[in-house]
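Researcher: We're teaching a course module on how sequence relates to structure. For the next exercise, students receive a sequence and then see the predicted structure as C-alpha coordinates, so they can try to spot secondary structure elements on their own. Here is the exercise chain.
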Amino acid sequence: MSTAPDPAPAPAADERTIRVSAVVLRDAEGRVLNVRKRGTSSLMLPGGKHEPGEDPRDTAVRECEEELGLALDRAALEPLGVFRAAAANEPGHIVEATVFAHPLVPGATGAAPRAEIEQVAWVDPAIPRDDLAPLNTELVFPALLGETRGR
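Model: And here is the predicted structure for the students to work with:
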Protein backbone atom coordinates (compact mmCIF):
# COMPACT_ATOMS: atom_id res chain seq x y z
CA MET A 1 0.00 0.00 0.00
CA SER A 2 1.49 3.34 -1.00
CA THR A 3 0.80 6.55 0.74
CA ALA A 4 0.71 9.97 -0.77
CA PRO A 5 3.26 12.43 0.54
CA ASP A 6 2.05 14.86 3.14
CA PRO A 7 0.86 18.10 1.57
CA ALA A 8 3.05 21.13 2.08
CA PRO A 9 2.08 22.95 5.24
CA ALA A 10 -0.05 26.05 4.78
CA PRO A 11 1.93 29.26 5.20
CA ALA A 12 1.80 30.76 8.67
CA ALA A 13 -0.42 33.81 9.07
CA ASP A 14 2.61 36.10 9.09
CA GLU A 15 3.89 34.57 5.84
CA ARG A 16 0.55 35.40 4.18
CA THR A 17 0.79 39.07 5.17
CA ILE A 18 2.35 41.42 2.63
CA ARG A 19 3.51 44.64 4.27
CA VAL A 20 3.58 47.71 2.07
CA SER A 21 3.49 51.49 2.11
CA ALA A 22 1.04 53.31 -0.14
CA VAL A 23 0.42 56.94 -1.01
CA VAL A 24 -2.76 58.93 -1.65
CA LEU A 25 -2.16 61.77 -4.11
CA ARG A 26 -5.30 63.78 -5.00
CA ASP A 27 -5.80 66.18 -7.86
CA ALA A 28 -7.84 69.41 -7.77
CA GLU A 29 -11.05 67.41 -8.43
CA GLY A 30 -10.36 65.04 -5.52
CA ARG A 31 -9.49 62.10 -7.74
CA VAL A 32 -6.87 59.68 -6.40
CA LEU A 33 -3.83 58.55 -8.38
CA ASN A 34 -3.85 54.77 -8.91
CA VAL A 35 -1.55 52.40 -10.74
CA ARG A 36 -1.85 48.94 -12.26
CA LYS A 37 1.14 46.64 -12.30
CA ARG A 38 2.04 44.75 -15.45
CA GLY A 39 0.22 41.42 -15.68
CA THR A 40 -2.48 42.35 -13.14
CA SER A 41 -6.05 43.62 -13.40
CA SER A 42 -6.55 45.76 -10.27
CA LEU A 43 -5.77 49.41 -9.81
CA MET A 44 -4.16 50.28 -6.51
CA LEU A 45 -2.40 53.13 -4.76
CA PRO A 46 1.21 53.74 -5.72
CA GLY A 47 3.60 52.12 -3.28
CA GLY A 48 5.16 48.80 -2.56
CA LYS A 49 6.91 46.40 -0.25
CA HIS A 50 9.36 47.51 2.39
CA GLU A 51 13.04 46.70 2.03
CA PRO A 52 14.48 44.98 5.15
CA GLY A 53 14.68 47.52 7.96
CA GLU A 54 13.17 50.30 5.82
CA ASP A 55 10.90 52.88 7.45
CA PRO A 56 7.40 52.95 5.88
CA ARG A 57 7.86 56.63 4.96
CA ASP A 58 11.06 55.85 3.11
CA THR A 59 9.30 53.01 1.29
CA ALA A 60 6.55 55.39 0.16
CA VAL A 61 9.05 57.93 -1.18
CA ARG A 62 11.20 55.29 -2.90
CA GLU A 63 8.29 53.47 -4.53
CA CYS A 64 6.68 56.64 -5.92
CA GLU A 65 10.01 57.59 -7.48
CA GLU A 66 10.54 54.11 -8.94
CA GLU A 67 6.98 53.63 -10.21
CA LEU A 68 6.12 57.13 -11.41
CA GLY A 69 9.23 59.31 -11.27
CA LEU A 70 7.58 61.49 -8.61
CA ALA A 71 9.69 63.09 -5.90
CA LEU A 72 7.77 63.10 -2.64
CA ASP A 73 8.82 65.06 0.43
CA ARG A 74 9.16 62.58 3.29
CA ALA A 75 8.25 65.32 5.79
CA ALA A 76 5.01 66.08 3.91
CA LEU A 77 3.65 62.52 4.27
CA GLU A 78 0.58 62.51 6.52
CA PRO A 79 -0.34 59.12 8.02
CA LEU A 80 -3.88 57.99 7.15
CA GLY A 81 -3.59 54.68 8.96
CA VAL A 82 -2.62 51.05 8.67
CA PHE A 83 -5.19 49.08 6.71
CA ARG A 84 -5.54 45.31 6.15
CA ALA A 85 -7.43 43.78 3.23
CA ALA A 86 -7.30 40.84 0.84
CA ALA A 87 -4.34 41.22 -1.51
CA ALA A 88 -5.57 42.09 -5.00
CA ASN A 89 -2.94 40.14 -6.92
CA GLU A 90 -1.88 37.36 -4.54
CA PRO A 91 -4.76 35.00 -3.64
CA GLY A 92 -4.73 33.76 -0.07
CA HIS A 93 -2.66 36.71 1.13
CA ILE A 94 -3.47 39.81 3.13
CA VAL A 95 -1.97 43.20 2.39
CA GLU A 96 -1.16 45.36 5.39
CA ALA A 97 -0.66 48.89 4.07
CA THR A 98 0.70 51.86 5.91
CA VAL A 99 -1.07 54.57 3.95
CA PHE A 100 0.04 58.19 3.73
CA ALA A 101 -1.49 61.26 2.09
CA HIS A 102 0.85 63.63 0.27
CA PRO A 103 0.14 66.98 -1.37
CA LEU A 104 -0.01 66.90 -5.15
CA VAL A 105 3.51 67.25 -6.57
CA PRO A 106 4.60 68.78 -9.88
CA GLY A 107 4.27 66.29 -12.70
CA ALA A 108 1.79 64.04 -10.89
CA THR A 109 -1.16 64.79 -13.17
CA GLY A 110 0.90 63.75 -16.19
CA ALA A 111 2.79 60.92 -14.50
CA ALA A 112 3.74 58.08 -16.83
CA PRO A 113 4.20 54.45 -15.79
CA ARG A 114 7.71 53.26 -14.99
CA ALA A 115 9.29 50.03 -13.74
CA GLU A 116 6.57 47.37 -13.29
CA ILE A 117 3.70 49.83 -13.72
CA GLU A 118 1.60 49.45 -16.87
CA GLN A 119 -1.22 51.94 -16.26
CA VAL A 120 -1.78 55.19 -14.39
CA ALA A 121 -5.36 56.29 -13.65
CA TRP A 122 -7.01 59.09 -11.69
CA VAL A 123 -9.97 57.59 -9.82
CA ASP A 124 -12.90 59.34 -8.17
CA PRO A 125 -13.21 57.56 -4.80
CA ALA A 126 -16.98 58.20 -4.77
CA ILE A 127 -17.66 56.31 -8.01
CA PRO A 128 -17.80 52.51 -7.64
CA ARG A 129 -15.62 50.53 -10.05
CA ASP A 130 -14.88 46.83 -10.41
CA ASP A 131 -11.20 47.21 -11.27
CA LEU A 132 -9.96 48.47 -7.89
CA ALA A 133 -8.02 46.61 -5.20
CA PRO A 134 -10.03 45.67 -2.08
CA LEU A 135 -7.78 47.94 0.01
CA ASN A 136 -9.16 50.92 -1.91
CA THR A 137 -12.82 49.94 -2.14
CA GLU A 138 -13.20 48.55 1.36
CA LEU A 139 -10.99 50.83 3.44
CA VAL A 140 -9.02 53.72 1.99
CA PHE A 141 -11.68 55.28 -0.25
CA PRO A 142 -14.37 55.11 2.46
CA ALA A 143 -11.90 56.78 4.85
CA LEU A 144 -11.23 59.52 2.30
CA LEU A 145 -14.93 60.07 1.71
CA GLY A 146 -15.51 60.30 5.45
CA GLU A 147 -12.89 63.05 5.62
CA THR A 148 -14.60 64.90 2.79
CA ARG A 149 -18.04 64.71 4.39
CA GLY A 150 -16.61 65.91 7.71
CA ARG A 151 -15.29 69.20 6.31
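Model: If you want an answer key for the exercise: The helical segments are 56-68, 134-150. The CA atoms of residues 78 and 101 lie 5 Å apart.
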